[in-house]
Write the structure tokens for this entry.
Amino acid sequence: MDQEFHRIKRLPPYVFAEVNAMKARDRARGADIIDLGMGNPDLPTPQHIVDKLIETVRDPKTHRYSSSRGIPGLRRALSAYYERRFNVALDPEAEAIVTLGSKEGLANLAQAITTPGDVMLVPNPSYPIHPYGFIIAGANVRHLALGPNHDLSAFMTTLDRAVRHCVPPPTALVLNYPNNPTAAVVDLDFYAEVVAYCRRHGIFILSDIAYAEIYFDIPPPPSILQVKGAKEIAVEFSSLSKTYSMPGWRVGFAAGNRRLIGALTRIKSYLDYGAFTPIQVAATAALNGPQDCVDEVRAIYKARRDVLVSSFKAAGWEIPAPDASMFAWAPIPKAFEGMGSIEFSKLLLEQAQIAVSPGIGFGEYGDGHVRIALVENEQRIRQAARSLKRFLGQAELPSGHNRRGLRVVAT
């Protein structure tokens, strides 16, 4: 039996695979790869959170099945966070649920609300689970092509055009600010206009704010739930992965619309028993405990951002300074822009030992960029800049490309 399964056929080859394979081969040969590719935080989880995990795991009662929607104390802690951070009141029983990271929550909600053939609106470029969670669930995705700044007027024009030409009408719209991969941020006016539009057209909104606490030199990014009436149509996903350097712990949340939370709760009741209870207790300690650790994480990423932007500029690659997130969205240098993001990423890895994420991995409209993650310390970033300077000065382009990266065709 060699037929391909239907859902697998709808998934394209993983575009990061080739770069990741090259990285693994080079490391196996002993190469010192400066890995700015995957957004995998390198900072340790704050000690008081680790201590709470250790304390709790020593109690054998916590080793039993947990609750698929999260222990009550953690749901109350999430509600308290929304109250103090966004001035948003949540009912922890009906408007909040714990997920195994925001990625799992988004994918399972897609399963819960999607009928095959439904149309979902997803910005492009975007974090892969945003479109592919729905594609796996059987939906059709209409991509909203966006520039790096996500201007409100341009966004509303693009959104309205998509809605007017969608058959059947769209079920849901995905938003993600601060954005991964572009690092774009929006204000409350942006959310207010989008909410008003989607309420008029009966469109659910799925908002992802996983990077809401990683911001620099700007006011704290808002929540869509701050908008009056947003709870009628919107659910919001968040995560402890970046805020508290807990990526491997797999703890996230969904909050907002009761109907959507109820749908996710029902789906999850069939699929899992929730995160390990000691992890949920430690996550509660993270949200309820001292928050100076979050300030420290934010300061570290800001310092890395500043070093990256200044040192790469001095090396010859000017990169816009991100206002938020742990990423820089970098235009491919002009001499190489015709190559596309995959070939440029491979060349950068091969000749400069710097790993980045090709922009096309986040959608076709990302192909002119690469995503650079701030997951190496300042010394390593400066080392990358020195290697980059040598690369830009003497890069050997693959056969068939000229110095502008354009493919040369023999005549």
Q: What stands out?
A: The chain has two domains: 6-44+293-394, 47-288.
